[in-house]
C-alpha cells in the first residue's frame, strides 16, 4: 500500500467522521468509508490544524494522527494600516518562511494588489508553507469582506467594494485614531468634490515604504499612482490593509466643510476650512518641531 502524501500540517474542518472522510476524498487523499470504522475505534478526528510530522504517512499513521496530533499554533498579527509587503516580511521572519515566496503566492492569487488582508490576530500552525499561509488568509479575508459588504449593501460587488477600501486605506494612513476617521473622510470627499489634489503624505507610505518619512524629494521623484501631490483623485488601489472602522468612515464621512488638517502637539489633528488657518497650524507645528 502506497503511503499517503500530505502537507506537514493539514487542516480538518469540523463535522461528523463521514463528513471528514468525504472532505479528505474530495482533496484526493486515499481514504474510504471503511476507514471511518477504524477512526471510531481509536477516537474521533480533531478539527483544526493537524501536525502530520512528515509528508508521507502509512494509512494507519495518517488516521491515528487525525485523532491525536494537534499542531502547535503561533499568533501572527496584522495591524490596521500595514502594507502587505511589510506584513509578509514580518511573517517570514516570525514563521521561518521565505518573503519572496510569500509575495509570489500573494501576487498570483490575490484579486487586488493591496488591501485584501483583514487586520487581525491569526492563529497559524507551525510548519505551514508559504502557499498555505497566503491561501488561508486570502480565504478568511475575502469571506469577511463579502460578509461586511452584504451586511451594508445587501450584495457584494468586488470592484465597487475595493473602491471604498481604497478610500479607507488613505483614511487609515492619515487618521490619528478611530474618532478622527470620519473627519479625515470628509476632507477627502470635499477635496475630491472640488477637484483638488489630495496632497496626503500617507498615500506615499505604500508597499516597502510603509514606515518611511515622506520628504519633498520623495514627493518630487515618486511617479507611482499613489502620489496624490502629482495626481488628482484617489489611488485606484488601496495603500494598505484596513480596519472595518476605516471602511465605515469611507462609506459615511462626517458632514463638514473641512479641506485641511495638520498634526497638533497632542498627536491628533487640527482641521480647518480655509488655507490661512491651515498655514497658521503649520507655523505652530514648525515652531514646536524646531524647539
Number of helices: 11
Radius of gyration over all CA atoms, rounded: 24 Å
**In total, how many beta strands?**
8
Net shape: elongated
What are the secondary-structure elements, in order, as H or E?
EEHHEEHEHHEHHHHHEEH
User: What is the share of helical residues?
Assistant: 40-55%
In spatial order, strands of the major sheet run 1-4
- Class by helix and strand content? mainly alpha
Low-confidence parts, pLDDT < 50 over ≥5 residues? none
Share of residues in strands: 5-15%
Q: Characterize the largest beta sheet: strand count, sense, and whether it forms a barrel.
A: 2 strands, antiparallel
Give the terminus-to-terminus CA distance: 77 Å
Total number of domains? 3
In round numbers, the mean pLDDT is: 90
Describe this structure in words.
The protein is mostly helical and 291 residues long. It has 3 domains: 4-68; 73-153, no CATH class; 158-290, no CATH class. The protein contains 11 helices and 8 strands. The chain has helices spanning 17-26, 34-42, 59-68, 84-95, 99-109, 130-153, 158-174, 181-193, 216-221, 244-251, 275-290, and strands spanning 4-5, 9-12, 48-51, 56-57, 73-78, 120-125, 260-263, 269-272. The strands form 4 sheets. Strands 1-4 form a two-stranded antiparallel sheet. A two-stranded antiparallel ribbon has the order 2-3. The N and C termini lie far apart (77 Å).
